[in-house]
Request: fold
Amino acid sequence: MTKRKSPQETRAKTPSPDTLPPVLAVVGRSKTGKTTLVERLIHALAEKGYCVGTMKDARGGFEIDLEGKDSDRHYRAGAQAVAVLSSEQEKMAFFGRLSVQTPIDEICRRLFPDVDLIILEGFKTLRFPKIETTLGESLSCYGDPDLLAVVGEAPGGTADVPCFSLADAPAVVALIEDRLNLNTRRPG
Reply:
């Protein structure tokens, strides 16, 4: 496997801090393949040299740290933001206090300044280009002008957007490159 390029190597130019990279939301009902599609898209995009960031809508809440660990203690003491780094594992986790009024585009701008594409999993009510996954049920984004494609077992009445199988990630990536102008973000 080839080594992934750094964000600096994959960019033609660094965008200004005010510029939001393209954002794509993968939406759909529970258990329709959203996470599987996101994984396949990340893999296919990374193979083409793109740097991808993701954000998951965890509607039911989540726990990021174990109670009593140092980072948990920092957060409970009142830190506005905590980052945990592990150079051995090449991982970083970041968590912080967030106003419910903070728009998603501002969060993306802060967290992902050096990526070519941000993929959101969930967030179907936001005004970003969307791909909906389905197992044949009616679409929750039917008629949404931001709907780019449907992936999965497409229900009837989706002639206005392309439909792909979950196994066809390369074709979905080609659509994303075209519709979100990703080719302009890569070095020539």
In short: Confidence is low (pLDDT under 50) at residues 1-17.
